[in-house]
Amino acid sequence: MPKTIVVKIGTSSLTQPETGQLALSTIATLAETLCNLRRQGHRVILVSSGAVGVGCARLGLTERPKAIALKQAVAAVGQGRLIRIYDDLFTTLQQAIAQVLLTRSDLVQRSRYLNAYNTFQELLGLGVIPIVNENDTVAIDELKFGDNDTLSALVASLVEADWLFLLTDVDRLYSADPRSVPDARPISLVSSIKELTELQIQTGSQGSQWGTGGMVTKISAARIAIAAGVRTVITQGRFPRNIEKIIQGELIGTHFEPQPEPTSARKRWIAYGLVPAGKLYLDEGAIAAVSLAGKSLLAAGIKLVEGEFDTQDAVQLCDTNGNEIARGLVNYNSNELQKIRGCHSREISTILGYAGAETVIHRDNLVLT
Ligand SMILES: Nc1ncnc2c1ncn2[C@@H]1O[C@H](COP(=O)(O)OP(=O)(O)O)[C@@H](O)[C@H]1O
Ligand SMILES: N[C@@H](CCC(=O)OP(=O)(O)O)C(=O)O
């Protein structure tokens, strides 16, 4: 059965840690592996980091730049080189590739989200391997994926992939960062989001010298992907051939089993495509109604409103400690909600002077995160 497979490779696997130079043998083996998968009839997308790392190596910079403008300039240098190397390798293997550079705003607007979906379908239908990266050169802070782990999970969710491989410089997920905790326990299988939460994995503060997100972004990427029904694997980038072995059933790396009933495509867009514009802090009754009983959110259960937002914007729903439990599209703007929070629905028309929706967020527009 042909599968849709998204592979994400991080800077730490694409470059040599000592010099920052490209790890050519890894990249070549990855190209061969992805071509094998294509020959077996699978649909393949590569999400490749490395624009900043390769740009730095090209310009002789020894550290990842911190200043935004410099980082964006360096990414512009590196992305061109990176794609040229991929094109040389894949062309040698008679495989067409495409460069797809995305920014967060491409997924926020529903029409652009659907457009991205159509483009991926067209490319995959043509047998092309799209090579995706964040459009670092133009991305602005407020509208950024920020890391390619998240980007790859969103792409996997968008195309409803069967597999997401997160290739990195450790062989799997551990109970804590194995660099600083040598006796950290290796984790082979995570069978649900609940189990992932219960494992309470320690991720340290950051990743390797050139990586961006560390393990924390891989875990949140896995959450996004498994909610979309995508089987996710964290494994070592130095051995790309393991991808084929894993698809054939070998338990290499850490596997995250997909949720049996994936969240619908529209709800996934609400939860992860949109950028939340505010926060609603709920009381315990509202948390139970929303998260356990699958009910709509009423004004009565809202304790606090944070941020400025409009009707139909996405907001986060949080407990009193600020932990997010859900996201949804609001039927009232932030000014209105400041006035009606804590009130019974039948009081809304008196307080506002006009009749609005009975719910603040209807359950069709509400998704647990
Ligand atoms: N619980 C953990 N299990 C495994 N690795 C961890 C964990 N916590 C932190 N890490 C670190 O995350 C790093 C990988 O993240 P990162 O450098 O961002 O890689 P990439 O460039 O592949 O995205 C590893 O080198 C490891 O030291
Ligand atoms: N878009 C950036 C990479 C961002 C990123 O997530 O990097 P990494 O942690 O190495 O996967 C780049 O191409 O350099």
UniProtKB/TrEMBL annotation:
<dbReference type="GO" id="GO:0004349">
    <property type="term" value="F:glutamate 5-kinase activity"/>
</dbReference>
<comment type="similarity">
    <text>Belongs to the glutamate 5-kinase family.</text>
</comment>
<dbReference type="InterPro" id="IPR011529">
    <property type="entry name" value="Glu_5kinase"/>
</dbReference>
<keyword id="KW-0028">Amino-acid biosynthesis</keyword>
<feature type="binding site">
    <location>
        <position position="136"/>
    </location>
    <ligand>
        <name>substrate</name>
    </ligand>
</feature>
<keyword id="KW-0641">Proline biosynthesis</keyword>
<dbReference type="InterPro" id="IPR002478">
    <property type="entry name" value="PUA"/>
</dbReference>
<comment type="function">
    <text>Catalyzes the transfer of a phosphate group to glutamate to form L-glutamate 5-phosphate.</text>
</comment>
<keyword id="KW-0963">Cytoplasm</keyword>
<feature type="binding site">
    <location>
        <position position="148"/>
    </location>
    <ligand>
        <name>substrate</name>
    </ligand>
</feature>
<feature type="binding site">
    <location>
        <position position="49"/>
    </location>
    <ligand>
        <name>substrate</name>
    </ligand>
</feature>
<feature type="binding site">
    <location>
        <position position="8"/>
    </location>
    <ligand>
        <name>ATP</name>
    </ligand>
</feature>
<dbReference type="InterPro" id="IPR015947">
    <property type="entry name" value="PUA-like_sf"/>
</dbReference>
<keyword id="KW-0067">ATP-binding</keyword>
<dbReference type="InterPro" id="IPR036974">
    <property type="entry name" value="PUA_sf"/>
</dbReference>
<feature type="binding site">
    <location>
        <begin position="212"/>
        <end position="218"/>
    </location>
    <ligand>
        <name>ATP</name>
    </ligand>
</feature>
<dbReference type="InterPro" id="IPR019797">
    <property type="entry name" value="Glutamate_5-kinase_CS"/>
</dbReference>
<dbReference type="InterPro" id="IPR001048">
    <property type="entry name" value="Asp/Glu/Uridylate_kinase"/>
</dbReference>
<dbReference type="InterPro" id="IPR036393">
    <property type="entry name" value="AceGlu_kinase-like_sf"/>
</dbReference>
<keyword id="KW-0808">Transferase</keyword>
<dbReference type="InterPro" id="IPR001057">
    <property type="entry name" value="Glu/AcGlu_kinase"/>
</dbReference>
<feature type="domain" description="PUA">
    <location>
        <begin position="278"/>
        <end position="361"/>
    </location>
</feature>
<feature type="binding site">
    <location>
        <begin position="168"/>
        <end position="169"/>
    </location>
    <ligand>
        <name>ATP</name>
    </ligand>
</feature>
<dbReference type="InterPro" id="IPR041739">
    <property type="entry name" value="G5K_ProB"/>
</dbReference>
<dbReference type="InterPro" id="IPR005715">
    <property type="entry name" value="Glu_5kinase/COase_Synthase"/>
</dbReference>
<protein>
    <recommendedName>
        <fullName>Glutamate 5-kinase</fullName>
        <ecNumber>2.7.2.11</ecNumber>
    </recommendedName>
</protein>
<keyword id="KW-0547">Nucleotide-binding</keyword>
<keyword id="KW-0418">Kinase</keyword>
<comment type="pathway">
    <text>Amino-acid biosynthesis; L-proline biosynthesis; L-glutamate 5-semialdehyde from L-glutamate: step 1/2.</text>
</comment>
<dbReference type="Pfam" id="PF01472">
    <property type="entry name" value="PUA"/>
</dbReference>
<dbReference type="Pfam" id="PF00696">
    <property type="entry name" value="AA_kinase"/>
</dbReference>
